[in-house]
Specification:
alpha+beta, single chain, Alpha-Beta Plaits, 5-stranded antiparallel sheet
């Protein structure tokens, strides 16, 4: 009968458990080493991909930040900066010249103020006031549920006509203050219905109306003179006066004429080109290292990865991509002295860059500044050019917002979404991301988008980081490999455990037989000795 001592190898004197463990480990070791090698390679790929994606993102963000700062666009300064803030418009490369500016009047919104009541909760009387504006009219109804200054202000705000109301409290009591948008066309009236209570009728205002409402500010347009030519605008934010410039009027000073100075950022652009080349080479070095064929086991972690190869291809095409549409000047980086080396890195011919900057400053400025143009000033582009794919887009069937009905129109034959005065390109359009404001009187317009370097990099970054982009595709592949490695490791552990059990069982059975043989041997030895003594 097999006992515990024999089962543990004490019978034969051989440590069968240790032998089983060593043999099992010896068989397991090469397979485990192969799995560990696969695991290390996959982790290296994941790390390398993260490094490459981070480099692309940092490069794109740094250039976008530089462009948004405005230092790479022409700068306009006023001899009297208190009159207005003048800035160049992102997306425009208009040929700016110096001019004079006089601000004779600021645009203002009509403001009404009521006589004071005891508090904001004081009753104002029941009935209806009609609020009339250039955009339409609305009934302001006051009943027991909102019979107070606060209730009246809330009802005016809820009318949705762009008129705001508030209650202002001071030492004399609480007053209703009603304000309209800036511009002479945005005046408004409040008319009491015949059956309105007398208290409520005191909040009416208009021609021939006698009430307690007092006009503290009349609606008026801004009046400016550019090089002596007088123009009016309904807002103090003026974008359609001088192409490529935005005016934010801040003070009215009739008779004070300020002179503008326009300076070109050639030095900043030259530095930016050099910085671009350096940053590009850093990203390309990482891409080359990740994809390197190598020798003696020194291949890049992402060698052969089609997704990352596609990223490198996109970067390699930047130098030859058309950045501006202006004829007669340079249109690619290669034309201004940015050369591509055999390894994909860039080098800069500064002498050529200097020459091209002197000859074509506006075109090269356009390389860095995204450009977006509307063929009609009544169609205002409100989206950023780096959010829209480059190209020309035809807007047709345009109708401005009116009477509470949103604007409408089509882009390349596809209906756009109206949001108030704005139109938004639908998701099905290649112009996804485009937003334009439409004014009255225009039926069609052409939109041109040239993203420039920063826009091109932003588009590359978005494409590779998209849910179906290169990075997601590569990560999905690495995740599949990681799961496969985990499954293979689990299988190896199960198989190795089974093999160890089989070895232990076989060696234990052998140990039992050896022990039995030893017992027989001992018996025979004993019998032989007994026989030997009996024969002496």
């Amino acid at each position: 009968m097999t006992n515990i001592t024999n089962a543990l190898g004490a019978g034969s004197g051989i440590d069968v458990r240790a032998i089983a463990e060593r043999l099992s480990a010896a068989v397991k070791a090469p397979r485990e080493a192969a799995i560990t090698k696969r695991e290390a390679a996959n982790e290296a790929r994941i790390s390398s991909l993260a490094d490459v994606a981070s480099s692309v993102s940092s490069f794109s963000s740094a250039l976008a930040t530089l462009v948004r700062g405005g230092s790479l666009r022409k700068q306009v300064s006023l001899s009297d900066p208190s009159l207005a803030k003048v800035t160049t418009v992102a997306g425009s490369t208009a040929n700016l010249n110096a001019f004079s500016l006089e601000v004779r009047q600021l645009a203002k919104g009509q403001t009404l103020e009521s006589a004071p009541l005891a508090s904001r909760l004081s009753a104002v009387g029941r009935g209806t006031l009609t609020l009339a504006t250039s955009a339409g009219s609305a009934a302001i109804t006051i009943d027991d549920s909102n019979n107070s200054l606060t209730g009246l202000a809330g009802a005016i705000n809820q009318a949705g006509l762009g008129i705001s109301a508030s209650v202002v409290t001071d030492s004399t009591g609480a007053r209703l203050v009603v304000k309209g948008s800036a511009g002479a066309a945005n005046s408004f009236t409040l008319t009491a219905a015949n059956d309105a209570e007398p208290q409520l009728a005191q909040f009416a205002f208009g021609a021939g109306i006698v009430s307690d409402m007092n006009q503290t500010v009349a609606a008026q347009d801004a009046i400016m003179r550019i090089d002596g030519v007088q123009v009016t605008r309904p807002s103090n934010l003026v974008r359609d006066l001088v192409e490529g410039l935005q005016f934010e009027l801040t003070a009215e000073k009739p008779g004070v004429i300020a002179q503008t100075t326009v300076s070109r950022p050639n030095e900043a652009i030259s530095q930016a080109v050099g910085d671009f080349v350096d940053a590009f080479n850093q990203v390309m070095t990482k891409l080359n290292a990740a994809l390197a064929a190598g020798q003696g086991g020194s291949s890049g972690a992402l060698r052969g990865n089609t997704a990352v190869t596609a990223i490198r291809k996109q970067f390699a095409e930047i130098t030859t991509a058309k950045l501006v549409g202006d004829p007669g000047g340079p249109q690619t980086l290669a034309e201004i002295g940015v050369r591509t080396n055999r390894d994909g890195s860039l080098s800069l011919d500064r002498a050529r860059l200097t020459d091209m900057l002197a000859r074509f400053p506006d075109a090269i400025e356009g390389f860095f500044n995204p450009k977006q143009l509307s063929s009609d000033p009544r169609v205002v582009i409100k989206s950023s050019p780096d959010r829209v794919a480059p190209g020309r887009y035809e807007l047709t069937d345009l109708v401005a917002a009116s009477g509470g009905v949103a604007a409408s129109g089509r882009i390349d034959g596809v209906a756009m979404t109206g949001v108030g005065v704005n139109l938004v390109a639908p998701a099905s359009s290649r112009a996804l991301g485009l937003i334009v404001g439409v004014e009255a009187g225009v039926n069609a317009a052409t939109i041109t988008i040239e993203p420039g370097l920063s826009g091109m990099l932003s588009q590359i970054q978005r494409s590779i980081q998209a849910p179906s982009g290169a990075v997601a595709s590569a990560r999905a592949g690495f995740a599949v490999e990681a799961r496969s490695i985990a499954e293979d490791r689990e299988k190896l552990e199960v198989q190795s455990g089974k093999y160890y059990s089989q070895l232990l069982q076989s060696f234990t059975a052998m140990d039992v037989r050896v022990s039995s043989f030893k017992a027989t041997q001992n018996y025979l030895d004993q019998q032989i000795r007994m026989w030997s003594r009996s024969n002496d």
